[in-house]
Amino acid sequence: MFKKVLIANRGEIAVRVIRSLRELGIASVAVYSDADADALHVRMADEAYHIGPAPSNESYLVWEKILDVARQTGAEAIHPGYGFLSENAQFSRAVRDAGLAFIGPPEEAITTMGDKVAARAKMIAAGVPVVPGTEEPVSDAAEAEEQAQRIGFPLMLKAAAGGGGKGMRRVDDPAAFRKAFEGAQREAQNAFGDGRIYLERFVSNPRHIEVQVFADRHGNVRHIFERECSIQRRHQKVIEESPSPFISQETREKICEAAVLATRAVDYEGAGTIEFLCDAEQNFYFLEMNTRLQVEHPVTEMVTGLDLVRLQVLVAAGEPIPFEQDQIHQNGWAIEARIYAEDPEKNFMPSPGKIEVLTTPSGPGVRDDSGVYQGYTIPMTYDPMISKLVCWGPDREAAIERMERALMEYRVLGVKTNIRFHQALLKHPDFRSGNFDTGFLERVDVMAGVEADPEEVRIAEIAAALITHARREQAAPAAAGQPHEASEWKRAARRMGLRGGGL
Amino acid sequence: MEACGPTYGIAWRWLVKRQYRVYRGKESVDVGVDGGPQTWDFTLDDQSGTVRLSFVEPQIALLQFEDGRVVEVPYALRKGKMLLNVAGHSYEFEVLDRLQALLREHRGGTAGGDGALTVAMPGRVIKIVVAEGDVVAAGDGVVIVEAMKMENELKAPVSGTIERIAVAVGDTVEAGDLLLQIDPED
């Protein structure tokens, strides 16, 4: 087992990794930029090294510097977290070339799954369902029509030679296909000099369902069930849960099996996630594979009792996955709300700044994976995540109630947060009934009509005056009498002198 | 001389009960507080009541109302504004005492407007030359801000009285931040 591991990341995920390393008795090495000298991951690590100015491309992405630190400190492995260098095949190769373990998949897997065309081809070969479409572009209208029958409607027409919307069309009605195809062809020919067109099924209002997978060096591949991540804003996940409230047990078995097939097809190692699109009829299609640990991994941990970071380290050290497929089960329900420093009233614009007061929830079934602390200033340079609040309950209703309770305890003063947004979302009947897809937040403004409670505003106003007064009393007590009042007299007199009249 | 009468009367009331004007954006309410050091009588518009105030943590106040309701209020002061959190919702107030409120009213406007000294670029306040209540003339140096490794002496934009100083020595400021408010002389 490793004795020392370097974390090539920052924020809450670096803290997350340090915790599991600590439980394994492994020393942790943190790296930090100018903006992160006082960050939580630096405070918690055993050793910490400065690697450059705030911008990521001058620090966290400069893998030569990171490798230098690893060599200096004698770290035997590097955990890349998520984002940054975690899916950088070149980095993964450089780590291995330096004689260190990369806590993640081999570079070939990263490269293959990073290439959409290559990934799709591998999946088809492996028998994993993909979004129906043409593998090669077509130029003949009759052939296109035949393919369209096979693929099904609605479908998208896309120019093979370029993008930007040219040669792109959506076709809902088979009767309209021919005309649409010919139009797309003409447009593509004019724009790119190439009239070939790809056809692809358009999955309307899909749900985003992903499956956690793990592979070791001994040929074992396991799935660790699914997560539902359909609540997204501008393609960013906002709230995630496990299990999915939508799919049937039959679909669950099929989709998890497909994920295992997909993982085997790329000679994988470590943690990975297979993302699928799922339509209203529970047909699912491979979207992509993320060859790293995901932000929302805690919901999987909460329903299975597993520590996925620990598993990553074990596998990277050459150990086999310590359980059989039938030994793990989904128990209860877990929901994760990403708490961000952003302003829901300004289109969720980031709101960096100093956290003056921070009170985080706890108690039964509540987990807060944080990257901040009271007094910390959230820097502008990185994503404005405050924490991931994860709640577990014996069923979905209980998990939601617990999350609502936890959000009530969560107090952040000093930066704007999306806590109110989460509260509004959790109350929405479509969320509660599990009836939503990836288009939900585009269609619904969950905060419409949410207003401040007038009684609450009154209490806040009373508190503001009281606190101001009490602090003044502490600074210069009226009980002490004259000096305080005398200066007020003087000032009043001065003002009146200026005006030559009464107040 | 004639000014002494009403002033004396108002000052007496000040000694007995403090009046504050609490601004939330452009809206404001008048809150009166009386008593202490732990139990206070308050008035807000036509509401009145009694509340017990304690500081359970350095930045968390606890209010207990007569009807038993308990409300925790995390708070912080930032650039002359009071940030508060009630029931998980954040608020930002400007709390002026009676004098400051009267002066602002007299000027006929709310925050900003003539008499406001704001800073044009980010920096750090290294010296404040005046105190609230001081009389200044337009052009007098009032605050020194360090920016881009140079010291900049900022000057009073108008003649008048320093109504309120919104920053403290050592504060970091951003472009557009209010440094101090002058009540312009008529």
Overall pLDDT of chain A: 92
Order of helices and strands of chain B: HEEEEEEEEHEEEEEEEE
CATH hierarchy class name of the largest domain in chain A: Alpha Beta
Q: Give the CATH H-level superfamily of the largest domain in chain A.
A: ATP-grasp fold, B domain
Helical residues, percent of chain A = 25-40%
Describe this structure in words.
- The complex is a heterodimer of chains A (503) and B (186).
- In chain A, helix 7 crosses helix 8.
- Chain A has four domains: 100 residues, Rossmann fold; 70 residues, Dna Ligase, domain 1, CATH 3.30.1490.20; 237 residues, D-amino Acid Aminotransferase, Chain A, domain 1 (2-Layer Sandwich); 41 residues.
- By secondary structure, chain A is of the alpha+beta class.
- The N and C termini of chain A lie far apart (79 Å).
- Chain A has an eight-stranded antiparallel beta sheet, sandwiched between helices.
- Chain A is globular.
- With 186 residues, chain B is mainly beta.
- Helix content of chain B is 12%, strand content 55%.
- Chain B is built from two helices and 16 strands.
- Chain B has an eight-stranded antiparallel beta barrel with strand order 1-2-3-4-5-6-7-8. Chain B has a four-stranded antiparallel beta sheet with strand order 9-16-14-11, with helices on one face. A four-stranded antiparallel beta sheet of chain B has the order 13-12-10-15, with no helix packed on it.
- Chain B starts with a helix and ends with a strand.
What's the arrangement of secondary structure elements?
The complex is a heterodimer of chains A (503) and B (186).
Chain A: E1 4-7, H1 11-23, E2 27-33, H2 40-44, E3 47-52, H3 63-73, E4 77-79, H4 89-97, E5 101-102, H5 107-114, H6 116-126, H7 141-151, E6 155-159, E7 169-171, H8 177-192, E8 197-201, E9 207-215, E10 221-233, E11 236-242, H9 249-264, E12 270-278, E13 284-290, H10 297-304, H11 308-316, E14 333-340, E15 342-343, E16 349-350, E17 353-354, E18 357-359, E19 366-370, E20 377-378, E21 385-393, H12 396-409, E22 411-413, H13 419-427, H14 429-432, H15 440-443, H16 454-475, H17 482-499
Parallel strand pairs in A: 1-2, 1-4, 2-3, 4-5
Antiparallel strand pairs in A: 6-7, 6-8, 9-10, 9-12, 10-11, 11-14, 12-13, 14-21, 15-16, 17-20, 18-22, 19-21
Helix pairs in contact in A: 4-5, 7-8, 12-13
Chain B: H1 4-16, E1 18-24, E2 27-35, E3 39-44, E4 47-57, E5 60-65, E6 70-78, E7 81-86, E8 89-97, H2 98-107, E9 116-118, E10 123-128, E11 135-136, E12 141-147, E13 150-155, E14 160-165, E15 172-173, E16 178-184
Antiparallel strand pairs in B: 1-2, 1-8, 2-3, 3-4, 4-5, 5-6, 6-7, 7-8, 9-16, 10-12, 10-15, 11-14, 12-13, 14-16
